Amino acid sequence: MNISFQIRNANPEDGEALLACLAAAFEKYREKYTPEAFADTVLDSESVQQRLRTMQVLVAVSEDRIVGTIGCTAHGPDGHLRGMAVLPDWQGTGVATALLQTAEAELVKLECQCITLDTTQPLKRAARFYERNGFSPSGRVSDFFGMNLYEYVKPLRLPRVEEMQ
């Protein structure tokens, strides 16, 4: 398998490929999710377009195929990540790390001071990945369509003025 890929901003024409990526990445967890939580995670044609309008969505692309995605948005000093997914056969290739680093860089440009993300109990591998990349559980747990949703947080180091010159 060719493991070269590029990260770019998604556009509205990527909607169906984003849906396919999310569905493939989360299929193995379907039975561990409530039906409503699974539907909210993998989206549909309308909700994927809504995400593209309201968040910066990044995609990893290899040979014109979307192999991974992540969304990021800023709310004042707080950045938030949502919808990270990597196709199963691309997991472990560096795609997730590249997507996460690119999203973090975008949030630094927006002067965010921290990043939050939420994950569910079945996604143990994802939680370990986030922890390896500087995220810590905040202790905040919320309801996600009948499932526990665990918040993770990471402080961001903003560049000093002299580094920007």
Overview of the structural elements:
The structure is a single chain. The chain has 165 residues and is of the alpha+beta class. The chain has a domain at 6-117: Aminopeptidase, CATH 3.40.630.30. It has helices spanning 15-26, 35-42, 45-54, 95-109, 124-132, 161-164; strands spanning 6-9, 56-62, 65-75, 78-86, 114-120, 136-144, 147-155. The protein has a 7-stranded mixed beta sheet with strand order 1-2-3-4-5-7-6, with helices on both faces. Helix 1 crosses helix 3. The longest helix has 15 residues, at 95-109. It is globular and about 40 Å long. 30% of the residues are buried.
Topology overview:
Elements (H helix, E strand, L loop, with lengths): L5 E4 L5 H12 L8 H8 L2 H10 L1 E7 L2 E11 L2 E9 L8 H15 L4 E7 L3 H9 L3 E9 L2 E9 L5 H4 L1
Parallel strand pairs: 4-5
Antiparallel strand pairs: 1-2, 2-3, 3-4, 5-7, 6-7
Helix pairs in contact: 1-3
- Top CATH class of one domain: Alpha Beta
pLDDT averaged over residues: 94
Binned strand content: 25-35%
What's the end-to-end separation, in Å? 41 Å
Q: Give the beta-strand count.
A: 7
List the defining traits of the structure above.
single chain, 165 residues, alpha+beta, Aminopeptidase, 7-stranded mixed β-sheet, 7 strands, globular
